[in-house]
């Protein structure tokens, strides 16, 4: 028995020595300066070159910009990202690197493997501590999703088999943003993430605003598709501010008088509705069905009460605008006389997927909505999501994810001191939505054009390649300090690659997105000029069909 114990002890000691020797052989440098999250290391260029031919893709990247290194502190390993490199002027063959510490893990004593990895640093290393490259085995431990609910979206760079995961509760609970220049695969990445969420939560509640009609093709089998032909969004769901954006025109001096007249006449029209009976505190914001004809009749009646010296222009302006919208077939999806019935419960149930019936996502295609009221339609949908969450607090909770493509169009930077209703409600959801179970997903190609503070409210940022320096700087300023090294690689990302930082991941990661099946991709592919400009024939018939649709303003 004692003999067996002695043999086991010797075997363990040999394994420990072999592990220590293996780690020591891979040493590529030392720590030379410690300063909070960012510190300096000195790397041996010859040691880095020896790693280039390693079979392990993570090991072969050791010490390069964007790679991970590790430093031993007691029984822990600290992980850091290499942010910048420069030649060491004092020592030939040496390189100075700046690193950002990301987190730490415990060391398994016999094998040297890392386990129990967590974000943050408990103890910093001292200058002179050895620097080692991170292996793929280390990265598996670092990026392990454990037992937290998650979705897998791709492969962690530079490995071939380590999966990049997003923690679903943190991703949705604290909002997210997907950023990327045109042509980087942003729409396909958005479709991939939403498909993964739908697969994980078939009884979910997702509303997506689609300004270009791209996503209907991607969600034919597992989504409810809405456009101007079947949306049937009642006009009376608008609050007073949204009514003003649609009905009130004219310059600033005229506007206030028009607004006062509209408020008085709108309240009277709502009070006339049967649905308002029993409501003690009826306001112009109450979603009460009313007749547009009652509203115009009230305006006409108020104008009739004017004395001869009174100015009838504001009344005529309002009445004319309302009559124009009523008679314009482009607005019929919202201002049709058929939408006067109290269909609020049915509308909310259809759009919010209550119940989901296995189709948890609503794609709202607003490409066919007249451009002058597109922002109002988006404002109404966003506000309904938020108001529903507020007024359903005493009911079983049904969190809703609102995804807004081309977000910079709806939440623009406040350059002129004027923010529309859509900007106000999306800004409010960004700040307060998580308290009420409303999650916001912003997709944009111009993050620098977003309203100040909105991006910083997004707990998770998924950044694809950004070509504009202003956009890069804006994203960098919204990121935690430890992610700066990753963000410096944003201009060098390939198509369908991204950097993920924030609450949705354990530490910042660079991910190559999974390929998406053809039937699940959005209709956003770029035209192939070299091929399409070799084709000819049928142009006369095509022009006829196009002009017919153009004139009828329909598809």
UniProtKB/TrEMBL annotation:
Gene3D superfamilies given in the database record: P-loop containing nucleotide triphosphate hydrolases
Domain Helicase HerA central: 151-385
Superkingdom of origin: Bacteria
Protein name: DUF87 domain-containing protein
